[in-house]
């Protein structure tokens, strides 16, 4: 009888412990204390940086699983649908446009890097050699297309309507003065490096430029200043913005180890924004 009682007590104790463990796990999950997060990034330099981020995060017990995209239109959709926990590929103007156009509710939780935009060419070595009537490739998404046009204006090649500059909404239709009669060719960002042979110059985002073997410091005929309003960021769904795992992810990225790697590895083509 005593043995039976002991066995029943042992079973009940084991069951109670299991319930407590499961309850604690559920509580931890509800409160965002999970230890594995899936993060969407773009091809190129982000892959190198996040290998360092992963090592830093691992010291804090956070496992980062990376999903690499080669299309800017996909990572926010994947995040909004729950296929990702976070992404790190975009700047605030791009995120604002995507939220508005596609109905996402995605918010920033921390800054990462600034990747200065450059115009590249296979045909000229200096922007002074740009011929009249040249075909100029720019991104066809509103935020990066606006950014490319602002860079052309800063180089003195065009003048944009003041209202478009103020609102960061410039398109080729907002070009007020175009003395060289440049022809603007909007293309998907990923297509621009492959189209350089057909264009005089093209605005190419840093990750795609790097993948195409282009260096901002060596090859760009026009480039943004190192500090610009287009700092990239880590983004999550609004419901997750205060979760502990989100704070741990940002802390891992904004660590001294990651800062040192960016500054040493990229020498100004990427700049820490934190």
Low-confidence stretches: 1-31
Please, how many helices? 10
Structural class: alpha/beta
> What is the typical, i.e. mean, pLDDT?
90
- Percent helix range: 40-55%
Shape: globular
Sequence of secondary-structure elements: HEHEHEHEEEHEHEEEHHEEHHE
Share of β-strand residues: 15-25%
Q: Distance between termini?
A: 68 Å
Q: What's the total count of β strands? A: 13
Order of strands, main sheet, comes to 2-1-3-12-4-13
Radius of gyration: 24 Å
Largest sheet: 6 strands, mixed
Brief account:
The protein has ten helices and 13 strands. The protein is α/β, with parallel strands linked by helices and 274 residues long.
Structural features, described:
Helix content is 41%, strand content 23%. It has helices at residues 2-30, 45-59, 75-80, 92-102, 142-154, 162-167, 206-211, 216-219, 244-253, 256-266, and strands at 36-42, 63-69, 86-91, 106-114, 118-120, 135-139, 159-160, 175-177, 183-187, 201-204, 222-223, 231-237, 271-272. The chain is an alpha/beta fold. The strands form three sheets. A six-stranded mixed beta sheet has the order 2-1-3-12-4-13, with helices on both faces. It has a five-stranded mixed beta sheet with strand order 9-6-10-5-11. Strands 7-8 form a two-stranded antiparallel sheet. The protein contains ten helices and 13 strands. Mean pLDDT is 90; it is low at 1-31. Helix 2 packs across helix 9 (244-253) and helix 2 (45-59) runs antiparallel to helix 10.
């Amino acid at each position: 009888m005593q043995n039976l009682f002991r066995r029943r007590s042992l079973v009940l104790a084991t069951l109670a412990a299991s319930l407590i463990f499961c309850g604690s796990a559920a509580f931890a999950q509800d409160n965002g204390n999970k230890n594995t997060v899936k993060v969407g990034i773009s091809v190129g330099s982000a892959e190198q940086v996040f290998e360092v981020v992963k090592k830093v995060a691992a010291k804090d017990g956070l496992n980062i699983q990376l999903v690499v995209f080669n299309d800017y239109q996909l990572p926010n959709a994947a995040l909004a649908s729950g296929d990702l926990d976070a992404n790190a590929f975009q700047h605030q103007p791009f995120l604002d446009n995507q939220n508005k156009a596609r109905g996402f509710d995605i918010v920033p939780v921390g800054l990462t890097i600034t990747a200065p935009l450059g115009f590249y060419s296979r045909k000229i070595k200096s922007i002074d050699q740009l011929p009249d009537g040249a075909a100029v490739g720019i991104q066809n998404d509103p935020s990066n297309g606006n950014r490319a046009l602002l860079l052309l204006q800063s180089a003195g090649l065009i003048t944009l309507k003041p209202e478009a500059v103020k609102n960061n909404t410039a398109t080729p239709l907002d070009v007020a003065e175009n003395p060289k009669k440049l022809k603007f060719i909007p293309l998907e960002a990923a297509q621009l490096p492959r189209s350089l042979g057909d264009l005089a110059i093209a605005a190419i985002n840093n990750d795609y430029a790097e993948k195409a073997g282009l260096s901002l410091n060596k090859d760009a005929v026009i480039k943004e200043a190192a500090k610009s309003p287009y700092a990239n960021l880590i983004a999550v769904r609004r419901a997750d913005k205060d979760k502990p795992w989100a704070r741990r992810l940002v802390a891992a990225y904004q660590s001294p180890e990651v800062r040192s790697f960016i500054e040493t590895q990229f020498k100004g083509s990427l700049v820490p924004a934190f």
